[in-house]
User: What shape does this take?
Amino acid sequence: MPAYGVLGGQWGDEGKGKIVDLLSSNVDMVVRFSGGNNAGHTVNNSLGEFKLRLIPSGIFWPTVIPVIGNGVVVDPEQLINELTEIESSHVDTSRLIISDHAHVVMPYHILLDQLEEQSKGNDAIGTTGRGIGPAYMDKAGRVGIRVGDLVAPDYLKLRLSSVLRQKNEVLTKIYGAEPINFDDLYEQCIDFGNRLRSNIASSQNVIFTALAEGKKVLLEGAQGALLDLDHGTYPYVTSSSPMMGGAVIGSGVPPSQIAETIGVFKAYSTRVGAGPMITELHDSVGNEIRNLAWEYGTVTGRPRRVGWFDGIAAKYSSQMNGYSSCVLTRLDVLDELPEVKICTGYLIDGKEVDFFPASYSDLEKAKPILKTMAGWSKPTAGASSYEALPAEAKDYISEIENLIGAPIDLISTGPHRDESIIRRNIIG
Assistant: This one.
């Protein structure tokens, strides 16, 4: 006791990497609990800039035990490449623990993901094509390969032979693709297992022990609440749960151990891929924000869609997760704008609503009701004191707090650790 959840409050890309890295100085363990290498966290510190896909952002603190939890789907090749990259910067990766219960993203998952997206044409979801959806489908269908299987050669051979036979039927008969050779894939899996063997363990036991010893555990989310499979903008969502419920399941930490639920929000809105985004900007202001903040996907490189802060979506996110504390990032991006806007309601079929619609058809029709506020008189970039912020920026922050219904205890004013305003020490 206790554990702290750090979640994306919007559609992901809120800057959680920096926040987890910053908060990790006060914890003993950081557990990534969901998603795969379709999500990316960028961390800037004294060692350089790192674009992480699977490795928890707390790994840069030598006293932290980083854990890839059971709820993550792991592409072993990507993970090994990532380990090699950060090891070249003299980061100790021997501390990393990979849950033996985590599922493996196999080569056939990647191929099937890409073939299925291609077959949908204009109706494509906009996945990253990295096999995440098919891997979660196999997990739910009970035909997945788990990380622990990579170090159990006899069991792996038996299980993989059955699964691959089915996958090759789909590849060849539905998509007309070439079948995957069993021997080649089996040997590749054995190589992965040999490379990662020393890091594979029962993450649940490690986490339970840490909590029993009174150590602090931070649960690191990927993506954002509005991409949740059940509660997000379905069908334009991810294949797992980036919410607090997903943190509990994807780590094994019981709800009674959660001390704080921390929502990370960007000072405006962005989204990658298709799906409703009520406040999206299709004008020069949107392009200006995109270029000022370099809003391009960490994993895909795709330009992100940009819009004003959506207070209705943010309130919905807070209601679902019960945020006790919030973080606001990228405030400095808005420094050069003469005015800023916040969505305080939706207009649907001529009727004003102050809640996030459950119906996708209503979301598609919704128009934002925008409150215009003055831009600030001086820059916030690099600020480390709340008192130093312009009055207009404080008003903007206060308006967002009121809409979310939770305090903003940390404000990020730049990519580096020291470019932060700490209003309350979230992790005691």
Summary: The first strand starts at residue 3 and ends at 8. The mean pLDDT is 94. Residues 103-196 form a domain with the Adenylosuccinate Synthetase, subunit A; domain 2 fold (CATH 1.10.300.10).
